[in-house]
Amino acid sequence: MSQKRSKHRQAVQTTAFERAARQPLMLGLFLPHQQGAWSPSKAPRQTSWDFEYNAKCARKADRLGFDLVFALAQWLGKGGYGGDIKFRENAIDPFITSAGLAPITKNVLLVATVHILYGWHPLHLAKYGAVIDHMSGGRWGLNVVTGYKESEFRMFGLDPIPHDQRYEMAAEFTTIMQRLWSEDEELTFEGRWWRTDGAFVAPKPVNRSVIMVNAGSSPAGIDYATDFSDIIFVTSPSGADPLETCKTLPDHIKQIRQVARAKKRRIKIMINPHIICRDTEKAAWAQHKRILDQRDEIALGNFVAAFQSGDQTSWRGHAKEHWAVGGNVHLVGTPEQIVDWLVKLKGAGCDGVQINFYNFLPDLDFFGKQVMPLLHQAGLRIPAA
Asked: Which of 255, 297, 325, 382 is the most buried (most CB within 10 A)?
Protein backbone atom coordinates (compact mmCIF):
# COMPACT_ATOMS: atom_id res chain seq x y z
CA MET A 1 0.00 0.00 0.00
CA SER A 2 2.78 2.40 0.92
CA GLN A 3 4.58 1.71 -2.39
CA LYS A 4 1.40 2.46 -4.35
CA ARG A 5 0.90 5.67 -2.39
CA SER A 6 4.52 6.66 -2.99
CA LYS A 7 4.17 6.11 -6.76
CA HIS A 8 0.96 8.12 -6.76
CA ARG A 9 2.62 10.99 -4.92
CA GLN A 10 5.56 10.97 -7.30
CA ALA A 11 3.14 11.29 -10.22
CA VAL A 12 1.38 14.16 -8.48
CA GLN A 13 4.68 15.99 -7.94
CA THR A 14 5.77 15.58 -11.54
CA THR A 15 2.36 16.64 -12.79
CA ALA A 16 2.22 19.70 -10.54
CA PHE A 17 5.54 21.15 -11.56
CA GLU A 18 5.35 20.14 -15.21
CA ARG A 19 1.89 21.66 -15.42
CA ALA A 20 3.27 24.92 -14.10
CA ALA A 21 6.26 24.82 -16.42
CA ARG A 22 4.08 24.09 -19.47
CA GLN A 23 1.95 27.17 -18.96
CA PRO A 24 2.90 30.02 -21.30
CA LEU A 25 2.63 32.31 -18.26
CA MET A 26 2.88 30.78 -14.80
CA LEU A 27 0.58 32.26 -12.17
CA GLY A 28 1.52 32.63 -8.53
CA LEU A 29 -0.24 34.34 -5.64
CA PHE A 30 1.78 36.29 -3.08
CA LEU A 31 -0.12 35.49 0.11
CA PRO A 32 -0.74 38.31 2.64
CA HIS A 33 1.04 36.75 5.60
CA GLN A 34 1.88 40.15 7.13
CA GLN A 35 -0.31 42.78 8.75
CA GLY A 36 -0.93 45.30 5.97
CA ALA A 37 0.38 42.84 3.37
CA TRP A 38 2.34 44.80 0.74
CA SER A 39 0.81 48.24 1.15
CA PRO A 40 1.42 50.58 4.11
CA SER A 41 -1.90 52.30 3.51
CA LYS A 42 -5.01 53.05 5.58
CA ALA A 43 -7.38 52.72 2.61
CA PRO A 44 -10.26 50.33 3.44
CA ARG A 45 -9.77 46.61 2.81
CA GLN A 46 -10.65 43.24 4.28
CA THR A 47 -7.20 41.68 3.85
CA SER A 48 -5.94 39.91 6.95
CA TRP A 49 -2.62 38.36 7.96
CA ASP A 50 -4.21 35.47 9.89
CA PHE A 51 -4.04 31.83 8.83
CA GLU A 52 -7.75 31.44 8.15
CA TYR A 53 -7.73 34.31 5.65
CA ASN A 54 -4.55 33.06 3.98
CA ALA A 55 -6.01 29.56 3.76
CA LYS A 56 -9.05 30.98 1.96
CA CYS A 57 -6.73 32.79 -0.48
CA ALA A 58 -4.70 29.63 -1.10
CA ARG A 59 -7.78 27.47 -1.67
CA LYS A 60 -9.27 30.08 -4.01
CA ALA A 61 -6.01 30.24 -5.99
CA ASP A 62 -5.94 26.45 -6.13
CA ARG A 63 -9.49 26.30 -7.51
CA LEU A 64 -8.74 29.01 -10.08
CA GLY A 65 -5.79 27.03 -11.42
CA PHE A 66 -2.91 29.13 -10.06
CA ASP A 67 0.38 27.27 -10.20
CA LEU A 68 1.87 28.30 -6.87
CA VAL A 69 1.29 30.26 -3.69
CA PHE A 70 4.11 31.97 -1.91
CA ALA A 71 4.81 34.27 1.03
CA LEU A 72 7.73 36.25 2.38
CA ALA A 73 9.34 35.81 5.80
CA GLN A 74 10.39 38.60 8.12
CA TRP A 75 11.63 39.32 11.63
CA LEU A 76 10.55 42.68 13.05
CA GLY A 77 10.43 44.28 16.45
CA LYS A 78 7.41 45.52 18.37
CA GLY A 79 5.13 47.66 16.23
CA GLY A 80 6.58 46.36 12.96
CA TYR A 81 7.31 49.31 10.69
CA GLY A 82 5.15 51.50 12.92
CA GLY A 83 2.59 54.12 12.02
CA ASP A 84 -1.08 54.01 12.93
CA ILE A 85 -1.43 50.63 11.20
CA LYS A 86 1.64 49.06 12.89
CA PHE A 87 2.60 47.84 9.47
CA ARG A 88 3.63 44.16 9.49
CA GLU A 89 3.77 43.81 13.29
CA ASN A 90 1.74 40.60 13.09
CA ALA A 91 3.01 38.05 10.61
CA ILE A 92 2.58 34.31 10.30
CA ASP A 93 5.54 32.23 9.19
CA PRO A 94 5.42 30.82 5.63
CA PHE A 95 7.35 27.65 6.50
CA ILE A 96 4.89 26.68 9.22
CA THR A 97 1.83 27.73 7.22
CA SER A 98 2.93 25.69 4.20
CA ALA A 99 2.42 22.60 6.36
CA GLY A 100 -1.04 23.86 7.28
CA LEU A 101 -1.94 24.46 3.65
CA ALA A 102 -0.73 21.05 2.48
CA PRO A 103 -3.85 19.01 3.40
CA ILE A 104 -6.38 21.67 2.35
CA THR A 105 -5.11 22.27 -1.19
CA LYS A 106 -4.93 19.85 -4.11
CA ASN A 107 -2.78 21.03 -7.00
CA VAL A 108 -1.08 24.32 -6.23
CA LEU A 109 2.63 24.35 -5.36
CA LEU A 110 3.34 25.58 -1.82
CA VAL A 111 6.55 27.63 -1.69
CA ALA A 112 7.88 28.51 1.76
CA THR A 113 10.44 31.23 2.46
CA VAL A 114 13.19 30.46 4.99
CA HIS A 115 16.12 32.57 6.19
CA ILE A 116 18.57 29.70 6.20
CA LEU A 117 21.40 31.60 7.94
CA TYR A 118 19.42 32.46 11.08
CA GLY A 119 20.45 29.42 13.11
CA TRP A 120 19.33 26.57 10.85
CA HIS A 121 21.35 23.42 10.21
CA PRO A 122 20.84 21.84 6.76
CA LEU A 123 19.71 18.59 8.38
CA HIS A 124 16.85 20.37 10.17
CA LEU A 125 15.48 21.92 7.01
CA ALA A 126 16.09 18.81 4.89
CA LYS A 127 14.05 16.72 7.32
CA TYR A 128 11.25 19.20 7.95
CA GLY A 129 10.96 20.09 4.27
CA ALA A 130 10.80 16.43 3.25
CA VAL A 131 7.96 15.87 5.72
CA ILE A 132 5.93 18.80 4.38
CA ASP A 133 6.59 17.63 0.82
CA HIS A 134 5.31 14.20 1.89
CA MET A 135 2.22 15.80 3.46
CA SER A 136 1.46 17.76 0.28
CA GLY A 137 1.97 14.85 -2.09
CA GLY A 138 5.07 16.40 -3.62
CA ARG A 139 3.94 20.02 -3.97
CA TRP A 140 6.35 21.75 -1.58
CA GLY A 141 8.97 24.29 -2.58
CA LEU A 142 11.64 26.31 -0.79
CA ASN A 143 12.51 29.96 -1.34
CA VAL A 144 16.02 30.35 0.06
CA VAL A 145 16.71 33.73 1.65
CA THR A 146 20.08 34.67 3.12
CA GLY A 147 18.94 37.85 4.91
CA TYR A 148 20.44 41.31 4.67
CA LYS A 149 19.05 43.34 7.60
CA GLU A 150 21.48 43.80 10.46
CA SER A 151 18.55 44.01 12.88
CA GLU A 152 17.43 40.49 11.97
CA PHE A 153 20.88 38.99 12.50
CA ARG A 154 21.08 40.76 15.88
CA MET A 155 17.73 39.30 16.92
CA PHE A 156 19.29 35.85 16.67
CA GLY A 157 22.45 36.91 18.49
CA LEU A 158 24.43 36.81 15.25
CA ASP A 159 26.83 39.24 13.65
CA PRO A 160 25.87 40.42 10.17
CA ILE A 161 27.51 38.43 7.38
CA PRO A 162 29.12 40.12 4.35
CA HIS A 163 27.01 40.02 1.20
CA ASP A 164 28.93 37.59 -1.00
CA GLN A 165 29.81 35.32 1.92
CA ARG A 166 26.09 34.82 2.57
CA TYR A 167 25.70 33.25 -0.87
CA GLU A 168 28.80 31.09 -0.38
CA MET A 169 27.26 29.82 2.84
CA ALA A 170 23.91 29.31 1.11
CA ALA A 171 25.59 27.18 -1.56
CA GLU A 172 27.16 24.91 1.04
CA PHE A 173 23.90 24.71 3.01
CA THR A 174 21.88 23.85 -0.11
CA THR A 175 24.40 21.27 -1.29
CA ILE A 176 24.12 19.38 2.00
CA MET A 177 20.34 19.63 1.98
CA GLN A 178 19.97 18.39 -1.59
CA ARG A 179 22.33 15.48 -0.96
CA LEU A 180 20.26 14.47 2.06
CA TRP A 181 17.17 14.49 -0.16
CA SER A 182 18.67 12.54 -3.05
CA GLU A 183 21.21 10.09 -1.65
CA ASP A 184 20.40 6.66 -0.20
CA GLU A 185 23.35 6.42 2.18
CA GLU A 186 24.19 8.33 5.33
CA LEU A 187 25.99 11.60 4.65
CA THR A 188 29.24 12.69 6.24
CA PHE A 189 30.23 16.18 5.16
CA GLU A 190 32.98 18.50 6.35
CA GLY A 191 32.42 21.97 4.99
CA ARG A 192 33.66 25.44 5.77
CA TRP A 193 30.51 26.37 7.71
CA TRP A 194 28.59 23.15 8.32
CA ARG A 195 29.47 19.58 9.00
CA THR A 196 27.53 16.41 9.60
CA ASP A 197 28.46 12.85 10.47
CA GLY A 198 26.18 10.01 9.40
CA ALA A 199 23.17 12.22 8.63
CA PHE A 200 20.18 10.67 6.92
CA VAL A 201 16.68 11.81 5.92
CA ALA A 202 13.69 9.52 5.38
CA PRO A 203 11.17 9.78 3.94
CA LYS A 204 12.75 11.53 1.00
CA PRO A 205 10.82 14.22 -0.86
CA VAL A 206 8.48 12.61 -3.37
CA ASN A 207 10.85 13.38 -6.26
CA ARG A 208 14.01 13.31 -4.12
CA SER A 209 14.10 17.06 -4.55
CA VAL A 210 11.81 20.03 -4.04
CA ILE A 211 11.11 23.13 -6.12
CA MET A 212 13.90 25.59 -5.33
CA VAL A 213 13.31 29.35 -5.57
CA ASN A 214 15.54 32.39 -5.09
CA ALA A 215 15.55 36.10 -5.87
CA GLY A 216 19.26 36.85 -6.10
CA SER A 217 20.01 39.90 -8.25
CA SER A 218 23.66 40.70 -7.53
CA PRO A 219 26.43 38.78 -9.32
CA ALA A 220 26.85 36.54 -6.26
CA GLY A 221 23.09 36.12 -5.97
CA ILE A 222 22.65 35.26 -9.63
CA ASP A 223 25.51 32.78 -9.41
CA TYR A 224 23.81 31.01 -6.49
CA ALA A 225 20.34 31.16 -8.05
CA THR A 226 21.45 29.72 -11.38
CA ASP A 227 23.29 26.91 -9.58
CA PHE A 228 20.39 25.77 -7.43
CA SER A 229 17.04 27.37 -8.31
CA ASP A 230 14.22 26.19 -10.55
CA ILE A 231 12.43 29.56 -10.32
CA ILE A 232 14.18 32.92 -10.03
CA PHE A 233 12.29 36.03 -9.02
CA VAL A 234 13.43 39.22 -10.71
CA THR A 235 12.70 42.84 -9.88
CA SER A 236 12.25 45.76 -12.21
CA PRO A 237 15.46 47.80 -12.63
CA SER A 238 13.38 50.93 -13.32
CA GLY A 239 10.67 51.07 -10.68
CA ALA A 240 7.00 50.11 -10.72
CA ASP A 241 5.91 51.70 -14.01
CA PRO A 242 5.14 48.79 -16.37
CA LEU A 243 6.14 50.65 -19.52
CA GLU A 244 9.61 51.40 -18.16
CA THR A 245 9.82 47.91 -16.70
CA CYS A 246 9.23 46.33 -20.10
CA LYS A 247 12.04 48.48 -21.53
CA THR A 248 14.66 47.67 -18.91
CA LEU A 249 13.77 44.12 -17.89
CA PRO A 250 14.89 42.21 -21.03
CA ASP A 251 18.60 42.98 -20.57
CA HIS A 252 18.47 41.95 -16.91
CA ILE A 253 16.69 38.68 -17.72
CA LYS A 254 19.04 38.01 -20.63
CA GLN A 255 22.00 38.23 -18.25
CA ILE A 256 20.45 35.67 -15.89
CA ARG A 257 19.58 33.27 -18.71
CA GLN A 258 23.09 33.48 -20.14
CA VAL A 259 24.58 32.45 -16.79
CA ALA A 260 22.07 29.61 -16.48
CA ARG A 261 22.73 28.35 -20.03
CA ALA A 262 26.47 28.29 -19.39
CA LYS A 263 25.72 25.91 -16.51
CA LYS A 264 23.28 23.90 -18.66
CA ARG A 265 20.44 24.72 -16.31
CA ARG A 266 16.84 25.49 -17.29
CA ILE A 267 15.13 28.06 -15.12
CA LYS A 268 11.82 29.88 -14.93
CA ILE A 269 11.78 33.61 -14.30
CA MET A 270 8.94 35.38 -12.49
CA ILE A 271 8.17 38.95 -11.43
CA ASN A 272 5.84 40.37 -8.77
CA PRO A 273 3.10 42.69 -10.09
CA HIS A 274 0.54 44.41 -7.89
CA ILE A 275 -2.69 44.23 -9.87
CA ILE A 276 -5.52 46.73 -9.48
CA CYS A 277 -8.26 45.69 -11.86
CA ARG A 278 -11.78 47.09 -12.19
CA ASP A 279 -14.52 47.16 -14.81
CA THR A 280 -13.36 50.60 -15.98
CA GLU A 281 -9.95 52.21 -16.18
CA LYS A 282 -11.27 55.19 -14.21
CA ALA A 283 -12.36 52.95 -11.32
CA ALA A 284 -9.03 51.14 -11.27
CA TRP A 285 -7.01 54.36 -11.08
CA ALA A 286 -9.40 55.70 -8.45
CA GLN A 287 -8.52 52.70 -6.27
CA HIS A 288 -4.82 53.30 -6.94
CA LYS A 289 -5.29 56.91 -5.82
CA ARG A 290 -7.10 55.83 -2.63
CA ILE A 291 -4.26 53.54 -1.66
CA LEU A 292 -1.68 56.23 -2.34
CA ASP A 293 -3.59 59.13 -0.79
CA GLN A 294 -4.25 57.21 2.41
CA ARG A 295 -0.70 55.94 2.87
CA ASP A 296 0.60 55.79 6.42
CA GLU A 297 3.56 58.15 6.15
CA ILE A 298 5.36 56.90 9.24
CA ALA A 299 5.02 53.24 8.31
CA LEU A 300 5.97 54.00 4.71
CA GLY A 301 9.05 55.95 5.71
CA ASN A 302 10.29 53.21 8.01
CA PHE A 303 9.51 50.54 5.40
CA VAL A 304 11.50 52.26 2.67
CA ALA A 305 14.37 53.15 5.02
CA ALA A 306 14.73 49.53 6.13
CA PHE A 307 15.21 48.34 2.55
CA GLN A 308 17.46 51.17 1.49
CA SER A 309 19.77 50.68 4.47
CA GLY A 310 20.69 47.12 3.48
CA ASP A 311 23.25 45.83 0.97
CA GLN A 312 20.73 44.14 -1.32
CA THR A 313 20.77 45.26 -4.95
CA SER A 314 17.08 44.86 -5.86
CA TRP A 315 14.23 47.43 -5.65
CA ARG A 316 16.68 50.32 -6.07
CA GLY A 317 14.68 52.02 -8.84
CA HIS A 318 11.45 52.36 -6.85
CA ALA A 319 10.18 55.74 -5.67
CA LYS A 320 8.52 56.18 -2.29
CA GLU A 321 5.03 56.22 -3.81
CA HIS A 322 5.75 52.87 -5.46
CA TRP A 323 6.40 51.36 -2.04
CA ALA A 324 3.12 52.83 -0.75
CA VAL A 325 1.10 50.82 -3.25
CA GLY A 326 3.29 47.73 -2.96
CA GLY A 327 4.45 45.12 -5.44
CA ASN A 328 7.38 45.37 -7.82
CA VAL A 329 5.48 46.55 -10.89
CA HIS A 330 2.01 48.12 -10.88
CA LEU A 331 -0.61 46.94 -13.36
CA VAL A 332 -3.71 49.14 -13.22
CA GLY A 333 -6.73 49.03 -15.52
CA THR A 334 -9.55 46.98 -16.99
CA PRO A 335 -9.31 43.19 -17.43
CA GLU A 336 -8.31 43.73 -21.07
CA GLN A 337 -5.60 46.21 -20.09
CA ILE A 338 -4.25 43.90 -17.40
CA VAL A 339 -3.97 41.06 -19.91
CA ASP A 340 -2.24 43.40 -22.35
CA TRP A 341 0.37 44.26 -19.70
CA LEU A 342 0.86 40.59 -18.88
CA VAL A 343 1.44 39.89 -22.57
CA LYS A 344 4.10 42.61 -22.54
CA LEU A 345 5.78 41.19 -19.42
CA LYS A 346 5.85 37.82 -21.15
CA GLY A 347 7.45 39.50 -24.14
CA ALA A 348 10.02 41.12 -21.85
CA GLY A 349 11.18 37.66 -20.82
CA CYS A 350 9.05 36.70 -17.82
CA ASP A 351 7.86 33.09 -17.59
CA GLY A 352 5.39 33.94 -14.86
CA VAL A 353 3.97 36.48 -12.45
CA GLN A 354 3.66 36.31 -8.68
CA ILE A 355 0.63 38.52 -8.04
CA ASN A 356 -0.42 40.50 -5.02
CA PHE A 357 -3.60 42.50 -4.51
CA TYR A 358 -4.73 45.18 -2.08
CA ASN A 359 -8.07 43.67 -1.04
CA PHE A 360 -6.97 40.09 -1.60
CA LEU A 361 -10.06 37.87 -1.65
CA PRO A 362 -12.42 40.21 -3.53
CA ASP A 363 -9.66 41.19 -5.97
CA LEU A 364 -8.65 37.56 -6.48
CA ASP A 365 -12.27 36.63 -7.13
CA PHE A 366 -12.59 39.43 -9.71
CA PHE A 367 -9.33 38.34 -11.33
CA GLY A 368 -10.61 34.77 -11.58
CA LYS A 369 -13.92 35.76 -13.16
CA GLN A 370 -12.84 38.61 -15.43
CA VAL A 371 -9.13 38.18 -16.21
CA MET A 372 -8.52 34.42 -16.28
CA PRO A 373 -10.78 33.78 -19.29
CA LEU A 374 -8.97 36.53 -21.20
CA LEU A 375 -5.61 34.98 -20.32
CA HIS A 376 -6.74 31.79 -22.04
CA GLN A 377 -7.96 33.74 -25.05
CA ALA A 378 -4.61 35.54 -25.25
CA GLY A 379 -2.72 32.24 -25.19
CA LEU A 380 -1.10 32.96 -21.82
CA ARG A 381 -2.84 30.01 -20.17
CA ILE A 382 -3.71 26.57 -21.46
CA PRO A 383 -6.07 23.99 -19.94
CA ALA A 384 -4.47 21.92 -17.20
CA ALA A 385 -3.55 18.41 -18.30
From this structure: 325
